[in-house]
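User: I've been trying to design a sequence by hand for this structure and keep getting stuck. Would you show me what you'd pick, starting by listing the structure so we're on the same page?

Assistant: Good idea, let's start from the same input. This is the structure you sent:
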C-alpha cells in the first residue's frame, strides 16, 4: 500500500468518525474545553477553607502581594507554563469563533466582509496557532530513536494544524496522542490526595483536557477560511 493510499484510508476513517459523532462532538469539545475552569471552581468551593487560611496567613505576614507578583513572574518566564496557558487561550479563541458563527447565522441576510478576512476566520487561525503550542512542551530533546521519531511526527502534525492542511485528520491524531499522554503521565487518581504531586498532576490533566477540547472543535468545525484546506477548494 502506497503513501497516498494510506493517507486516503486515514482520511476515510476520520470522515467516518465525524459522520458518527457530528451531533454531539461539538458539545463534547466544549465540555472538555471548560473542564479546567470547572475543576478550578470545584476546588475553590470545596477547598475554600484551606485557601482562605493561606491567604489570611500570607496577608498577615505582608507577603500576599509579593506572592502575586512572584506567580505572574513565574508564568511569564517559565516557557512550558506560558505555552500551555497560551494553548488554553487558543481553545477559547476557537470557542469564540464558533459563537460568532452562530450569531452570524441569525442575521444571514446582512452583508459581511470577505470570508478570508472575517473576524471569525482570523479567530480560528489564531486559535489553531496557539493550540499547537501545547505540543511544543511535549518535545523531548534527546538522541534516543523513540524521542527523535516522536518529535518528527509531532512537529509534522503541529505544522499541519497551524497552516490548516489536512487539518481534521491532523487534529484528530493529536487528540489521540494527547489522550494517551494525559491518561498515562497525568494519572493524578493514582497518587494520594495529601501529596503535592496529586494537585500538580490534576492541574496538568484538566489543562490538557481543555486543549483536547480545542482540538475537537477544530475537528468538528474545520480550520476556517484562512487555511490551506480552504485554499484547495479554489484551486
Amino acid at each position: 500500500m502506497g503513501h497516498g493510499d494510506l493517507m486516503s484510508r486515514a482520511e476515510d476513517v476520520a470522515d467516518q468518525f465525524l459522520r458518527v459523532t457530528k451531533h454531539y462532538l461539538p458539545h463534547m469539545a466544549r465540555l472538555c474545553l471548560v473542564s479546567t475552569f470547572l475543576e478550578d471552581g470545584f476546588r475553590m468551593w470545596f477547598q475554600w477553607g484551606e485557601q482562605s487560611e493561606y491567604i489570611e496567613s500570607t496577608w498577615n505576614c505582608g507577603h500576599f502581594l509579593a506572592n502575586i507578583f512572584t506567580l505572574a513572574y513565574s508564568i511569564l518566564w517559565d516557557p512550558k507554563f506560558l505555552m500551555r496557558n497560551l494553548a488554553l487561550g487558543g481553545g477559547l479563541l476557537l470557542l469564540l469563533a464558533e459563537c460568532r458563527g452562530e450569531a452570524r447565522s441569525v442575521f444571514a441576510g446582512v452583508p459581511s466582509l470577505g470570508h478570508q478576512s472575517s473576524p471569525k476566520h482570523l479567530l480560528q487561525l489564531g486559535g489553531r496557532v496557539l493550540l499547537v503550542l501545547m505540543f511544543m512542551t511535549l518535545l523531548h530533546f534527546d538522541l534516543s530513536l523513540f524521542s527523535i521519531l516522536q518529535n518528527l511526527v509531532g512537529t509534522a502534525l503541529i505544522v499541519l494544524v497551524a497552516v490548516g492542511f489536512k487539518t481534521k485528520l491532523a487534529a484528530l491524531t493529536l487528540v489521540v496522542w494527547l489522550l494517551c499522554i494525559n491518561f498515562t503521565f497525568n494519572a493524578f487518581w493514582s497518587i494520594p490526595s495529601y501529596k503535592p504531586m496529586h494537585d500538580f498532576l490534576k492541574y496538568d490533566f484538566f489543562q490538557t483536557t481543555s486543549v483536547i477540547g480545542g482540538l475537537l472543535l477544530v475537528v468538528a468545525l474545520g480550520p476556517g477560511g484562512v487555511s490551506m484546506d480552504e485554499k484547495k477548494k479554489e484551486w
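That's my pick for every position. To get oriented when you compare it with your attempt: Confidence is low (pLDDT under 50) at residues 105-115. Residues 21-101+120-226 form one domain.
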